[in-house]
């Protein structure tokens, strides 16, 4: 196991809250909002953050004082026995590194902050809390892993592996009154934990998946309220998850398998008299596989026989004589670490909109929305009756399920009734991607009230809203939200429905950046960077899928390069320097690996996937067969590697590795020179074979010589407007930079046309053909169904970034990351007449609500406290501008025919007349 003290800079979920109770006039209406309360972190120097939510303008932090105490009583008495920062003159309010006494094993820490502002002093009205987890392997070593590594009667290991759930129980006798108690659990692959019959926590499908040979996550819960003096019962159910049900032992050359479910648990109890007790897993725990969950496989579904329910199995006084003693089993192999990212949770419900009978004496349930999660069933019947539910994304013309695109995933849940009145059931250890469900087994016609869809994704907040004057763009945004959320499964996966569901790197190269406007995905992606780091080979190679559940190590730039671009997103959007410091050595190792093995004549000659999923020339094709649509792999990998060198140069400064900068600079100069020498055709002002992707990458990355830059851009515009008749022609790679590049070069109107198109190929074409998520293929309704997921996000490219940064005007200034300064520069002339958007940044809520008339603009904006904004207005005449009904008379600049105002925090209404 790792030595925790070496991992000072592990990202933690921000311990953030709003401040309340202003002590002086000038700041009012402050609200308290506790955002995180993490238990069991394994970071000895966690980072602390806070938000100042204040009415009134121009609120700036000038200093802060953090107090951290070992008990709440000490903190309330202002006895900071762990750390008192003293008054620190600083405007920093995010990622403040704890610098107090060394935190120990299972240490509790309570903290608060006093913020000094130009408007007065603010004391936090509430306190925040975190606790340290188990720091040493020795503490876990005395806890034995237990399980049952045998197959039961109906189990099988095959392409369609079946394995019944493991039920475990342990009765304990607490002789004294309990003061506090915490439980630490590693349940592989998935677990549910019970104490005295009550489920602990509201998480589902826990813990988050990892490559269990590299690292294993433990969860921590405060269970003081669930325990009592005397007899208590601990119970767990172990499901298969990624640990067992990954097509077990099927294609072992491709698919990793990890063994059968197992767990390790420690319950730490502190009594009121000051004594302690530790209850651990050992072979005195009782176990059975003869419970109601007969099978649970992420791809195939869950089978549940209610007749086999064991009433009271997780409470005291249950007769477990037929149960066996748990066996000691081999631990998973990976080191044990605290889970710093949230578990999944039921985040919402969807009620079906219709149910129709079919000729097969079944029923088709329509949820009205392609969703991810499962179905809750309510049913009455006789003992032994079976209800079967098969899930799919769409229907065939005859109204039956369309399942070819699921490949060999069975996606079927089976519930066997016990026959005792109304029965309500939902699965525990699986999820489905679906809109439609084929229902069979009802003796009378079911109604919509028999079913509720449960929406499941990571327990993270939606941070962004967007509405505009274009209905198609609004629906695309909704489709993106559903697609992104549904594919957050403790890691970002490509699709939720077929026999894949893998964390492909290339799907998130810029996708993670766009997603960060919609969701608070910081800890999710920080965890994913660890997954990528752990998957690196000894010589430096990175896989295309991480965790490497599939053994896809093929070497290319555009997929593994996501490792670097996601880290850059975390820095840009969340001001996270520590994640870069942590990951930099592994990133550098990969960059060197690619350079030493694949750099030929100063160009990267290794590519694997090309510009994946360019729109085919025929609606029936999955892949284009037209060479003119394909971009040379060397163009993609060389341009991308050049871009990564620039990011690594920035990272070298952040990570205090400035000695690397000269090499990055030298290599970038050489690649740029070789790239232009080989691929720039100065007679046609185009790159390579003149695909839009071949041109947009060097334009976006700053590789085009200044004297031909505008000509190359105009040539690219001609390709889009004339050759492609105003439609998109890029695949996964080109689409990542297309919308912003068009806008940055002055053609936001063309970007808007691409965004609002309704004909093939376009995002709007998906909407026009009934999509409620984003397809894997531009022609997903007509191509071979075996290759089309109807819930993929990779084709979004930079569309969501463009929505926020270029249409709403909400962008973090790269020079002041984490939205310390906001660039508010919408393209008012792209084609929209209004946009109303918001984004909950790490500093607070940003709003941009503008309406444009023929010659006037009304723009309402909100800038969070302790930040500023550069506001760009489409006029050169400041006298035509009013801010909060006051004419602008000073403190503005003219930049590229725009009036630029630098505004402090607050809420403003800007009116501009005679706009351009």
UniProtKB/TrEMBL annotation:
InterPro entries: 6-hairpin_glycosidase_sf, 6hp_glycosidase-like_sf, Alpha_rhamnosid, Bac_rhamnosid6H, Bac_rhamnosid_C, Bac_rhamnosid_N, Ig-like_fold, Rhamnosid_concanavalin. Residues 462-807 form the Alpha-L-rhamnosidase six-hairpin glycosidase domain. Residues 176-347 form the Bacterial alpha-L-rhamnosidase N-terminal domain. The keyword Signal applies. It catalyses: Hydrolysis of terminal non-reducing alpha-L-rhamnose residues in alpha-L-rhamnosides. One of its GO terms (biological process) is carbohydrate metabolic process. Residues 809-884 form the Alpha-L-rhamnosidase C-terminal domain. Residues 358-457 form the Alpha-L-rhamnosidase concanavalin-like domain. It holds the Pfam family Bac_rhamnosid. The keyword Signal applies. GO terms for molecular function: alpha-L-rhamnosidase activity. Keywords: Hydrolase, Signal. Gene3D superfamilies: 1.50.10.10, Galactose-binding domain-like (2.60.120.260), Immunoglobulins (2.60.40.10), Maltose phosphorylase, domain 3 (2.60.420.10). Its EC number is 3.2.1.40. Residues 1-22 form the signal peptide. This is alpha-L-rhamnosidase.
């Amino acid at each position: 196991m790792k030595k925790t003290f070496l991992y000072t800079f592990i990202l933690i979920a921000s311990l953030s809250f709003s401040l309340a109770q202003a002590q002086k006039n000038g700041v009012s209406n402050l609200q308290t909002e506790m955002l995180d309360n993490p238990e069991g972190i394994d970071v000895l120097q966690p980072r602390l953050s806070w938000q100042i939510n204040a009415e009134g303008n121009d609120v700036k932090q000038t200093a802060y004082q953090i107090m951290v105490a070992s008990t709440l009583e000490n903190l309330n008495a202002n006895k900071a026995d762990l750390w008192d920062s003293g008054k620190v003159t600083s405007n920093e309010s995010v990622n403040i590194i704890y610098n107090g006494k060394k935190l120990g094993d299972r240490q509790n820490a309570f903290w608060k902050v006093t913020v000094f502002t130009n408007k007065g002093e603010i004391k936090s009205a509430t306190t925040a809390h975190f606790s340290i987890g188990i720091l040493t392997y020795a503490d876990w070593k005395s806890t034995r892993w237990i399980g049952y590594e045998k197959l039961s009667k109906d189990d099988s290991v095959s392409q369609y592996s079946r394995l019944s759930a493991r039920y475990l129980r342990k009765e304990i006798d607490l002789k004294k009154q309990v003061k506090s108690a915490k439980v630490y659990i590693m349940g592989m692959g998935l677990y549910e934990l019970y104490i005295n019959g009550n489920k602990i926590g509201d998480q589902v499908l826990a813990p988050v998946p990892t490559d269990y040979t590299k690292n294993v996550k433990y969860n921590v819960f405060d269970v003081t309220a669930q325990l009592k003096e005397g007899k208590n019962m601990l119970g767990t159910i172990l499901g298969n998850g990624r640990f067992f049900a990954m097509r077990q032992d099927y294609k072992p050359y491709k698919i990793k398998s990890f063994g059968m479910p197992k767990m390790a648990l420690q319950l730490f109890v502190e009594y009121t008299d000051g004594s302690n007790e530790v209850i651990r897993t050992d072979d005195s725990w009782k176990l059975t596989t003869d419970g109601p969950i007969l099978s649970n496989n992420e791809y195939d579904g869950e089978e549940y026989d209610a007749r086999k329910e064991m009433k009271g199995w997780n409470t005291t006084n249950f007769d477990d004589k037929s149960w066996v003693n748990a066996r000691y089993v081999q631990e998973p192999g990976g080191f044990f670490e605290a889970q710093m990212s949230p578990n999944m949770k039921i985040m919402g419900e969807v009620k079906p909109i219709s149910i129709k009978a079919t000729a097969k004496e079944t029923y088709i349930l329509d949820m009205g929305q392609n969703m991810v999660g499962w179905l809750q069933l309510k049913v009455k019947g006789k003992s032994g009756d079976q209800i079967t539910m098969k899930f799919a994304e769409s229907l065939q013309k005859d109204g039956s399920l369309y399942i070819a695109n699921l490949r060999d995933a069975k996606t079927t849940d089976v519930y066997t009734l016990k026959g005792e009145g109304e029965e309500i059931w939902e699965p525990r250890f699986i999820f489905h991607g679906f809109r439609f469900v084929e229902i069979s087994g009802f003796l009378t016609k079911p109604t919509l009230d028999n079913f509720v869809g449960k929406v499941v994704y990571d327990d993270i907040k939606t941070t962004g809203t967007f509405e505009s004057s274009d209905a198609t763009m609004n629906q695309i945004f909704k489709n993106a939200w559903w697609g992104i959320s549904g594919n957050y499964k403790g890691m970002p996966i490509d699709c939720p429905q077929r026999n894949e569901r893998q964390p492909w790197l290339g799907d998130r190269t810029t996708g993670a950046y766009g997603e960060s406007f919609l969701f608070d995905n910081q800890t999710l992606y920080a965890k994913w960077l660890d997954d990528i780091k752990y998957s690196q080979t000894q010589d430096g190679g990175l896989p295309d899928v991480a965790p490497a559940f599939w053994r896809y190590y093929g070497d290319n730039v555009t997929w593994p390069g996501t490792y670097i671009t996601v880290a850059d997103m975390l820095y840009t959007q969340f001001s996270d320097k520590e994640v870069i410091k942590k990951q930099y050595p592994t990133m550098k190792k990969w960059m060197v690996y690619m350079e030493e093995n694949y750099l030929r004549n100063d160009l990267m000659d290794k590519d694997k996937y090309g510009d994946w999923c360019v729109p085919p020339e025929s609606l029936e094709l999955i892949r284009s067969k037209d060479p003119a649509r394909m971009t040379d792999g060397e163009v993609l990998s060389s341009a991308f590697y050049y871009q990564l060198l620039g990011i690594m140069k920035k990272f070298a400064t952040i990570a205090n590795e400035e000695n690397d900068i000269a090499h990055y600079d030298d290599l970038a100069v050489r690649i740029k020179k070789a790239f232009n020498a080989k691929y720039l055709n100065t007679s046609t002002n185009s790159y390579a074979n003149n695909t839009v992707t071949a041109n947009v990458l060097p334009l976006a990355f700053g590789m085009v010589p200044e004297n031909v830059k505008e000509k190359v851009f105009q040539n690219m515009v001609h390709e889009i407007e004339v050759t492609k008749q105003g439609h998109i022609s890029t695949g996964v790679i080109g689409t990542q930079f297309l919308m912003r590049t068009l806008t940055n070069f002055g053609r936001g109107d063309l970007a808007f046309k691409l965004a609002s198109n309704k004909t093939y190929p376009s995002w709007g074409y998906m909407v026009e053909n009934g999509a409620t998520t984003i397809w894997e293929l531009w022609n997903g309704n007509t191509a071979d169904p075996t290759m089309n997921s109807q819930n993929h996000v990779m084709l979004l490219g930079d569309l969501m970034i463009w929505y926020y940064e270029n249409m709403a005007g909400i962008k973090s200034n790269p020079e002041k990351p984490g939205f310390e300064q906001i660039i508010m520069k919408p393209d008012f002339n792209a084609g929209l007449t209004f946009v109303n958007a918001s984004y909950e940044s790490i500093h607070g809520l940003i709003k941009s609500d503008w309406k444009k008339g023929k010659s006037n603009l009304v723009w309402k904006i909100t800038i969070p406290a302790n930040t500023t904004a550069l506001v760009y207005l489409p006029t050169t005449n400041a006298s035509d501008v009013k801010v909060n009904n006051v004419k602008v008379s000073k403190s503005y600049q003219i930049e590229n025919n725009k009036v630029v105002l630098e505004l402090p925090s607050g809420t403003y209404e800007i009116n501009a007349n005679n706009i351009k």
